Amino acid sequence: MAYDDLPTHKPKREKPKRKGKRTPGRALLVFILIDAMTALGVVIYLLATRGG
After folding, report:
1. Mind listing the pLDDT tens digit for each residue in 1-52?
2. Disordered: where is this region (predicted)?
3. Alpha-carbon span 2 to 25, nearest angstrom
């Protein structure tokens, strides 16, 4: 794991204050949306396989 070789990862780690306040809400929303989409996909798949 060589994070020092990548310059794009350094500025993100140097400013953890903004991400600490913003990420929890957005991360939860993203995870909820992903879970909802996966759940809908599973339900549609089950309905398609069982019904059709």
Report:
1. 455 555 555 555 555 565 555 667 888 999 999 999 999 999 999 999 987 6
2. 1-22
3. 29
Among 1, 18, 29, 23, smallest CA distance to 9 is for 1
Contact status, residue 19 vs residue 12, Cβ threshold 8 Å: yes
DSSP 46: H
- Which single residue is written with the structure tokens 């350094």? 10
**DSSP annotation of 5:** T
Query: What is the total residue count of the chain?
Result: 52
Query: What is the rounded distance in angstroms from the CA atom of residue 33 to the CA atom of residue 6?
Result: 30
Q: Which two tokens stand for residue 51?
A: 């019904």
